[in-house]
C-alpha cells in the first residue's frame, strides 16, 4: 500500500497510497469497520476519497471516536474496547481487544481490475492468519460440521433441487464467522453483496482467504471474549430479529400438491380428527391463476375469504406462497403497472429482461430499489384484507429457469463479449441491470429487498399485528424481516443430522427463527424418519412439515401406528415448550442470540464441545441430543461442565450426570434425550390443539436445584405490540435450604391464579414456606403456589 497520506477525523481514519485506500471507523463499541479499496485509483474518480456506499445489511451509524497514533511504519487506532495496528507499507493490520490480545491478523490485501465489456472485471482479496487450532464457526446457511476449518464456500444465492450434505452454494449468503481460539472469540463480517468466496484454511492451512468479485473489501471486526458477545455485537450492527407472532411457533403444515380449497380443508380436518396440534397451513403455487402472483384460480379457490374464516374457526392460519417473478401478460394490471413505472430488471442493452419461472414468460421486479420495495409491499393489500396471516417468499434468489437470449453487442474483434448473458446457476445474467447496478453486485441481496418491502408493507397495512414472513433466500440482515427455512432438502437421515449445524450456523448470524422441511421435501420418508425428525423439530424455532409434488404424502398419519402416536407426542411436547420458546424468541429480539445454540456458546474453551455438531442447547438450560440415525436406540452425547439432570422427553427424570464427559443416552423410538442444567428453570404449559395467546393460563416451572438458580418468562398477547410481563425467577440452595424468589416487570394482567413448580435434585424436604401445597417423592418436590407468589423456602 505504501501510505502517502493519512487523513484523520474524529470518527474516521483514512490511509491512502498511490493506488489503495484503507478507511477505519468504529460503528459500535467493540466493533471496527475497515473499508479496503486495493484498486481505488482505478475504480473511482476522486481517489483517495472513496465513493459513498449504501450497505444493505448494516443499520448502525458510524459515530464513535477514534484515537490515532503514528509511529514510524505503524499507525495505531484505538476505539472503545478494541484497537488496530496498521502497517502503513502494506496496509495489513493486527486487531486486538481491550486486554491487548491479538484476535485477528491480516497478512495480505490485494486487488485487480480488468477493463471489459459490458462491465469491468474486479477482484479484491484478503488473507487472514489462521493460527493452528483456531476454529471458524458460522458462515450462515452452510454445510459441514460446526467448525468450518478446512472448507471452501461460495456466497451466491442458488436454487438447488435437491441439496445434499456437500452442496455449496445454497440459498442464503451470510459472509460472517466467529473465530474461536483458546476460549476467546472474535468475529468477521464481509459487507459485500457481490459474489464472493472464502477458503477457510483449506488451500493453505495457515490462511483464511476471502475474495470478492467487487472492487472493495468492506469488513467489520468484532471483539468477544465470549461467542455470545460477538453475536450480540453483530446483531446490533445488522439488526435484531423482531418477536414473531406466537402462532408462527406452533405446528405448521405444507405441501406442494394441495391443489384446491378442499385439500386445505381436508388437511386441517385430518389434523383435528386425530387430535394433532396445528396452527398454520401454507398455500403453494397452485392457488394462483396461471402462476400470476397476487391472483386466485377461481375454480380451485372460489372463496378465499370463506376458506380463511373456516380455517380460523379451527384455530388455523393460512400463509400463501409469494414468488417475485411476474407473468408477462399484457393487460394484467400488476405487470402493466410495473412496466409503466420502469420497475423491471433489464438486459444490458436496456430492454426488459424476459425469463421463465413458473410463469412463462416472466419478468422480474427490481426489488433492490427502495421505490420498488415500497410498491411491492403495497401489493400485499388485498391478501391482507382477505385475512392471510403471513407470507412465504420463495424462488427469490431470484430463481429463473431460463433467460430469453439477448445476443448483446459484438466487440471490436467481432466476438461475443465476455460477461454478456453469463449465468451462474438458475438465475439472471451477471450483466443484467438493476437501475444503476449490475446483477453480479445485487444478486445476493435481491431476497433481502423483497423481504424488506413485504415487512414494511405489512407494518403499514396491518399495524396491530406482527408481520410473519418466511424466506428461502437472503443475505446478512435478513433476520430483521423474516424467518428462514433451508430450502429443498431430501428425506434422508444425513439431512436430518446436518440440519443441526446448518441451523446453528444461521443462529450465530442472529437468524433466530429457522427450520427445515420435516421429514424432507424430496424423496420418501419412512415412519421412523418421520418420528425422529419431528422429535428433533420439536426444538426448531420453526416446525413445518413440507413435501414436494410427486412425492408420497407426509402428514403425520400417513405412516400408521405406532408412528402417529409418537408424532402426536412430539407435537404435544412442542406445545408444552411454547412458554420457553416464546421467551427465547423474545431474548433473540433483544440480543440476537437464537434459541438453538451450539454447545460452544456456553463452553467456548471446551474442545470436545466443538465436535458435538449433532446436539445443541435450547436456550441456556436444556441440552438436546436427538437420535438422528436409523435403527439407533442409544447415542453418545457430550455434556459440558456442570451438573445435568436426565430429563428425556421433558417428562420422566433420570440420573444427574457431571459434565465434561461423554455419556451414553437411552433413545428408544419414543424418547428424545434431553438434560436440564443444574440451576436451570424452564417454563412449560399444557398441550393444546392450537395457540391462543402467550399469557399462559397454565404454567409449570421445572427447576434443577443448585447453588444458583435462574429462570425467565416473557408473556404478552401473543401478537401485536401491547402490554407485556417479564418474570425473573432467582434463588439457590445455601446450607441445604432452597430459596426461590420471583420478580416481575410489565403491566400485563396475569391470566392464571396458580402455578406449579417441580424442583429436582433435593435429597429431603422437611418444611416448605410460601406454597399452598407440596408433595415430595423420589427427589422431586411438587409445589402448588399462588400465581403472585414472591418467595419460597424449602428446608431439609
UniProtKB/TrEMBL annotation:
Under InterPro entries, the record lists:
Gal_mutarotase_sf_dom, GH, Glyco_hydro_31_AS, Glyco_hydro_31_C, Glyco_hydro_31_N_dom, Glyco_hydro_31_TIM
Q: Name one GO biological process term.
A: carbohydrate metabolic process
What does the UniProt keyword field contain?
Answer: Glycosidase, Hydrolase
Q: Does the keyword Hydrolase apply?
A: yes
Output the SUPFAM superfamilies linked to this UniProt entry: (Trans)glycosidases (SSF51445), Galactose mutarotase-like (SSF74650), Glycosyl hydrolase domain (SSF51011)
Q: Give one Pfam family.
A: Glyco_hydro_31_2nd
Indicate the segments annotated as coiled coil, or none if absent. none
| Origin: domain of life | Bacteria
Record-annotated Glycoside hydrolase family 31 TIM barrel domain positions: 241-584
Instruction: Give the protein family.
Output: Belongs to the glycosyl hydrolase 31 family.
Q: What is this protein called?
A: Alpha-glucosidase 2
Identify the species of origin: Corallococcus coralloides (strain ATCC 25202 / DSM 2259 / NBRC 100086 / M2) (Myxococcus coralloides)
The organism that produces this protein has a lineage beginning with: Bacteria, Pseudomonadati, Myxococcota, Myxococcia, Myxococcales
Amino acid at each position: 500500500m505504501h501510505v502517502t497520506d493519512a487523513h484523520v477525523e474524529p470518527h474516521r481514519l483514512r490511509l491512502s497510497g498511490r493506488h489503495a485506500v484503507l478507511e477505519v471507523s468504529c460503528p459500535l463499541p467493540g466493533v471496527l469497520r475497515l473499508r479496503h479499496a486495493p484498486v481505488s485509483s482505478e475504480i473511482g474518480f476522486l481517489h483517495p476519497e472513496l465513493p459513498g456506499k449504501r450497505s444493505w445489511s448494516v443499520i448502525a451509524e458510524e459515530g464513535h471516536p477514534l484515537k490515532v497514533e503514528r509511529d514510524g511504519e505503524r499507525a495505531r487506532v484505538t476505539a472503545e474496547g478494541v484497537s488496530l495496528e496498521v502497517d502503513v507499507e502494506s496496509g495489513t493490520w493486527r486487531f486486538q481487544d481491550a486486554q491487548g490480545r491479538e484476535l485477528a491478523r491480516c497478512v495480505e490485501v490485494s486487488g485487480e481490475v480488468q477493463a471489459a465489456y459490458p462491465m469491468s472485471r474486479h477482484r479484491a482479496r484478503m488473507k487472514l492468519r489462521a493460527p493452528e487450532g483456531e476454529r471458524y464457526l458460522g458462515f450462515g446457511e452452510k454445510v459441514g460440521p460446526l467448525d468450518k476449518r478446512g472448507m471452501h464456500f461460495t456466497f451466491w444465492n442458488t436454487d438447488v433441487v435437491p441439496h445434499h450434505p456437500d452442496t455449496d452454494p445454497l440459498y442464503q449468503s451470510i459472509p460472517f464467522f466467529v473465530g474461536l481460539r483458546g476460549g476467546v472469540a472474535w468475529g468477521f463480517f464481509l459487507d459485500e453483496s457481490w459474489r464472493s468466496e472464502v477458503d477457510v484454511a483449506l488451500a493453505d492451512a495457515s490462511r483464511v482467504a476471502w475474495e470478492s468479485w467487487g472492487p472493495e473489501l468492506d469488513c467489520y471486526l468484532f471483539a468477544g471474549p465470549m461467542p455470545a458477545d460477538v453475536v450480540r455485537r453483530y446483531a446490533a450492527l445488522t439488526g435484531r430479529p423482531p418477536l414473531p407472532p406466537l402462532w408462527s411457533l406452533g405446528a405448521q403444515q405444507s405441501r406442494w400438491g394441495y391443489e384446491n380449497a378442499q385439500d386445505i380443508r381436508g388437511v386441517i380436518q385430518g389434523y383435528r380428527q386425530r387430535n394433532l396440534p396445528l396452527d398454520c397451513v401454507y398455500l403453494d403455487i397452485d392457488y394462483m391463476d396461471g402462476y400470476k402472483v397476487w391472483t386466485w384460480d377461481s375454480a380451485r379457490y372460489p372463496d378465499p375469504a370463506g376458506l380463511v374464516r373456516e380455517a380460523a374457526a379451527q384455530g388455523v392460519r393460512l400463509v400463501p406462497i409469494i414468488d417475485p417473478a411476474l407473468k408477462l401478460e399484457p393487460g394484467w394490471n400488476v405487470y402493466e403497472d410495473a412496466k409503466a413505472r420502469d420497475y423491471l430488471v433489464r438486459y444490458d442493452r436496456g430492454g426488459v429482461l424476459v425469463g421463465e419461472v413458473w410463469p412463462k414468460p416472466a419478468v422480474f421486479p427490481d426489488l433492490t430499489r427502495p421505490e420498488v420495495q415500497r410498491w411491492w409491499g403495497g401489493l400485499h393489500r388485498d391478501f391482507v384484507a382477505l385475512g392471510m396471516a403471513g407470507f412465504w417468499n420463495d424462488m427469490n434468489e431470484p430463481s429463473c429457469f431460463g433467460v430469453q437470449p439477448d445476443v448483446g453487442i459484438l466487440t471490436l474483434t467481432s466476438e461475443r463479449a465476455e460477461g454478456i448473458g453469463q449465468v451462474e446457476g438458475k438465475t439472471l445474467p451477471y450483466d443484467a441491470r438493476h437501475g444503476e447496478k449490475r446483477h453480479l453486485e445485487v444478486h445476493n441481496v435481491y431476497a433481502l429487498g423483497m423481504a424488506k418491502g413485504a415487512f414494511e408493507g405489512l407494518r403499514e397495512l396491518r399495524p396491530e399485528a406482527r408481520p410473519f414472513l418466511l424466506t428461502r433466500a437472503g443475505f446478512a440482515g435478513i433476520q430483521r424481516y423474516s424467518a428462514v427455512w433451508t430450502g429443498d432438502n431430501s428425506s434422508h437421515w444425513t439431512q436430518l443430522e446436518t440440519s443441526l449445524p446448518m441451523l446453528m450456523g444461521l443462529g450465530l448470524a442472529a437468524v433466530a427463527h429457522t427450520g427445515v422441511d420435516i421429514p424432507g421435501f424430496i424423496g420418501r420418508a419412512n415412519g421412523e424418519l418421520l418420528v425422529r425428525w419431528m422429535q428433533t423439530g420439536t426444538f426448531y424455532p420453526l416446525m413445518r412439515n413440507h413435501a414436494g409434488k410427486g412425492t408420497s404424502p407426509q402428514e403425520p398419519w400417513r405412516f400408521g401406528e405406532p408412528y402417529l402416536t409418537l408424532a402426536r407426542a412430539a407435537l404435544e411436547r412442542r406445545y408444552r415448550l411454547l412458554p420457553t420458546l416464546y421467551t427465547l424468541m423474545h431474548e433473540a429480539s433483544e440480543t440476537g442470540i437464537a434459541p438453538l445454540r451450539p454447545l460452544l456458546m456456553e463452553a467456548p474453551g471446551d474442545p470436545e464441545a466443538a465436535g458435538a455438531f449433532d446436539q445443541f442447547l435450547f436456550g441456556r438450560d436444556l441440552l438436546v441430543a436427538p437420535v438422528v440415525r436409523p435403527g439407533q436406540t442409544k447415542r453418545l452425547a457430550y455434556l459440558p461442565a456442570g451438573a445435568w439432570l436426565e430429563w428425556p422427553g421433558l417428562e420422566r427424570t433420570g440420573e444427574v450426570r457431571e459434565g465434561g464427559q461423554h455419556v451414553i443416552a437411552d433413545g428408544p423410538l419414543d424418547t428424545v434425550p434431553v438434560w436440564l442444567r443444574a440451576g436451570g428453570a424452564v417454563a412449560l404449559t399444557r398441550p393444546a390443539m392450537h395457540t391462543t395467546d402467550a399469557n399462559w393460563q397454565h404454567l409449570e416451572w421445572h427447576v434443577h436445584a443448585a447453588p444458583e438458580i435462574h429462570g425467565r418468562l416473557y408473556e404478552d398477547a401473543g401478537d401485536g405490540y401491547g402490554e407485556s410481563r417479564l418474570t425473573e425467577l432467582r434463588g439457590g440452595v445455601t446450607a441445604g435450604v432452597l430459596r426461590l424468589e420471583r420478580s416481575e416487570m410489565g403491566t400485563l394482567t396475569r391470566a392464571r391464579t396458580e402455578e406449579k413448580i417441580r424442583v429436582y435434585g433435593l435429597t429431603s424436604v422437611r418444611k416448605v414456606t410460601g406454597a399452598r401445597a407440596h408433595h415430595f417423592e423420589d427427589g422431586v418436590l411438587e409445589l402448588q403456589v399462588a400465581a403472585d407468589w414472591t418467595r419460597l423456602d424449602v428446608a431439609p
